[in-house]
C-alpha cells in the first residue's frame, strides 16, 4: 500500500461502516450488497482526486486480503467430516453451474467475464466466490456489481422457496440441510433457509456451506490457468503469479492455521469477522466506481443467466442426492 492510497481507503471506510451496520440489521440482504448500493448512490458525487487511487486499491487489493482472512473461519476437520457425503453433490453442482453458465451465457450473448462470475457465484458461495474470481480473471467493476446483484436476488428467493419445497416433499433434516448447503449461494441465506426448516437442518446446512466455500481454491486455479493460457496465445507472456494467485495460497494457509488450533477461537473468529468487513469495504469501493446508468442498459440478460444457473444447481443437488440415497 502506498501512502497516497490512505485517503481513499479512509474515504471508502465511511461508506463501509454504514453498509456493515445496515447488513447487521438486515442480514438476508447483507453488508456487501448495501456496500455496493451506497457506493453507487455516491458514485456520481464530486470527490477529491486524491481519493481515487485508494478507492481502486480497496476494490482490488483489500478484496484479496478479505478472502485470505475468511480462511481463519474454516476448520478442515469439519470439511473432512462432511466432505465424504457432500463431495459428489458439490462436484456435480459445480459442473452443472458452469455448464449452464457457459451455454446460457453464449445463447444470451454475454461476455466471458460475466458468465464466469455468475457461474462461480452460483456454484460456490455467492459474493465471496465472485470476489475471489474477479481479480484472477481481471473482471471489470461493473461486471462484479451486476453478478453480485443477480446472485443476491436468487439468494433472497431461496430463503422463502426452499423451506416450502422441502416440507412439501417431506425431506429429512439432513437431506434439506445438504440441499440448502449445496444449492443456496450466500452463507446468510443458507443459514436463514436451513433454520427456517429446522434447527438440525440449519446446523448441517451451515457446515456443508462452509465446506463448499473451499471450492474457491480449485475454481480460482482453474480460471488462473485459463487466463495464463490466453495470455500466452495472444503473446502477452506467461506469468507464474497468474497461474497460482498468491491470495488463494494464503487462504489455504489460513485454513490450516485455524484447523491446528494454534490461535484462540476468539482470535480466529475476529480475523474472520475482519475479513467479512473487508469484503464490505471492497464492495463499497466497487460501488463508488460504478455507473448506475450503465447497469440499467444491461437489461434482463444477467438475471436470465442467474435463473438458469440457479435452477441447474438446485435440480442437480436433488438428483445426485437421490441417486446416492441421501434423500
From TrEMBL:
It is found in: Cell membrane. Keywords: Cell membrane, Membrane, Transmembrane, Transmembrane helix. The chain crosses the membrane at residues 12-42, 62-80, 86-105, 117-138, 144-164, 203-227, 247-265, 277-296, 303-324. The keyword Coiled coil does not apply. Its main location: membrane. Signal peptide: none annotated. It comes from the Bacteria. One of its GO terms (cellular component) is plasma membrane. It is a multi-pass membrane protein. Belongs to the UPF0324 family. This is Sulfate exporter family transporter. It comes from Selenomonas artemidis F0399.
